[in-house]
Design a protein that fits this description.
4 helices; globular; 7% strand; 2 strands; two-stranded antiparallel sheet
Length: 119
């Protein structure tokens, strides 16, 4: 799987999830900047080895098993627009509290982790 294919799959599923929760949404495509951020965040969190055998294509093949989690992470980031980096946010009498400042760690805990050295 290529990065372009992974990005398209995550964006499509993220939009599907959003439309199921908010049927009146005006979005016809999920914001690519959010999808790119989530995939980059996930790849960094996986700690893929810096070897020639872990090509971008191989990393994408590994992450394709987590498309649903990545799509949910995209929706989580979208829901935090104007509250970026905050662990809590209040507006118009509505208060929200988040597990993490960008993406809830629990949401992405199922991603592979290739830590190759422990000190």
């Amino acid at each position: 799987m290529t990065l372009t294919e992974l990005t398209a799959s995550v964006a499509t599923k993220a939009l599907t999830y959003l439309q199921e929760v908010e049927p009146d949404t005006e979005l016809t495509a999920f914001p690519s900047s959010i999808v790119d951020f989530v995939i980059e965040y996930a790849m960094a969190g996986c700690h893929f080895p810096n070897t020639l055998t872990y090509t971008e294509s191989k990393k994408c093949d590994i992450l394709k098993g987590s498309i649903s989690s990545l799509a949910m992470a995209c929706n989580e980031v979208l829901s935090r627009v104007n509250a970026e980096g905050q662990t809590s946010h209040g507006e118009n009498g509505v208060s929200r509290q988040y597990d993490g400042s960008w993406i809830s760690p629990k949401l992405l805990q199922g991603l592979p982790n290739f830590a190759n050295t422990v000190y």
